[in-house]
Structure formats: C-alpha cells, structure tokens
Backbone:
C-alpha cells in the first residue's frame, strides 16, 4: 500500500487538490487573512504571517511519510483557498484520516469542501482500497462537526482530554469515520449535493 504515500493531484469541476508547495504561500496567506480564522481558538488555522512555517511543518511531515499535504485550488480564481491532508496514515490497516483542513472564510459553506472531500474520499476508497477514512475535530466545533456529518461520516466516539491546545485548554476530540461498505452511498449523496449546488 505504498501507493498512498505517493504525491498525487485530483481534479473536480470547481476545485483541484494538489500537492502543497511554497508556491501556494502568497495565496494561502491571503486566504488565512480572510475572516481572521486564526482567532477561532478551537481550530488550528495559521496566522497569515505563519503560513510559511505551517507549509514547512507539513512538508517536513511529508518527508517522514506521516502526512500527505495538499493545497485546495479554486478553479474560478486559480488560487489556493485552503489546505487539507491525508494524515495518521496506517498503511498496514489501510486507514487514513482526512484532516488539518481549513478554507478561507469566503468559500466556506460553498461547494468547495464537498467537492474536495469527494475527490479525496474517492481516491482513498477507489485507488488506495482503504477500509476506513477518519475525520477528527474539536468536540465544541459545531460547524466542523456538522460539515463532517453532512459528508455522511458516522460518529465513532469522543477522545476525552485528547490534546493540549495552543491556549492551554484541553481538547476533547470528536472522531468520525466512513467505512468502505458505506462509500457507494456516501459517494451518491456527495454527487447529489454537488448537483444541487449546480456543479
């Protein structure tokens, strides 16, 4: 299963998901400034002037093959509007997490996230033969939890006192997953949501 450790790009109607590089830094700095998302203490969105360091961190994890980071490119503008990753890669058990995702404020609640997740889920289940794809978020991040549930992921449970946040608070992590047998239904629903959005 080393195939999922290879960099790849996937292309949709409104977004492309491509390997993250420093070429994306200017657009991602602009994206991070849109809505001052770093002020949401329960998320991990970099400040605009910290985007370069975050790209460096993610690329270092890619060198260790523990994370495969992507930039999400909005086709209409041709610009990177956010980041996402394959992480917690478990080759032996054919499991991954799609996480460390954020988008600029102006594309939130648009088709961007739906199509991005469809592309990454399709690659995971149809190319990598994953048995499960996981999602995690802060327990109190209701917007993120609703977005994950809207994808069709089901709750696995809560990891209590799971992480120490930058402000010193303790994060309880809500864990969700989609398993291989659910993928055909999830895929049909995501395609339907995109059709409703006019894509």
Residues:
């Amino acid at each position: 299963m080393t195939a999922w450790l290879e960099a790849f790009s996937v292309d949709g109607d409104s977004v492309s998901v491509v390997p993250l590089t420093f070429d994306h830094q200017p657009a991602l700095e602009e994206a991070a400034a849109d809505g001052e998302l770093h002020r949401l203490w329960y998320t991990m969105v970099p400040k605009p002037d910290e985007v370069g360091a975050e790209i460096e961190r993610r690329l270092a994890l890619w060198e260790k093959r523990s994370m495969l980071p992507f930039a999400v490119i909005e086709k209409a503008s041709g610009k990177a509007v956010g980041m996402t990753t394959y992480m917690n890669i478990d080759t032996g058990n054919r499991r991954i997490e799609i996480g460390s995702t954020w988008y600029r404020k102006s594309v939130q609640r648009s088709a961007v996230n739906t199509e991005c997740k469809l592309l990454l889920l399709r690659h995971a289940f149809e190319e990598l033969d994953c048995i499960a794809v996981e999602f995690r978020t802060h327990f109190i991040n209701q917007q993120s939890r609703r977005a994950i549930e809207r994808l069709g992921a089901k709750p696995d449970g809560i990891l209590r006192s799971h992480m120490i946040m930058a402000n010193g608070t303790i994060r309880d992590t809500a864990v969700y997953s989609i398993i291989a047998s659910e993928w055909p239904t999830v895929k049909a629903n995501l395609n339907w949501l995109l059709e409703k959005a006019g894509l």
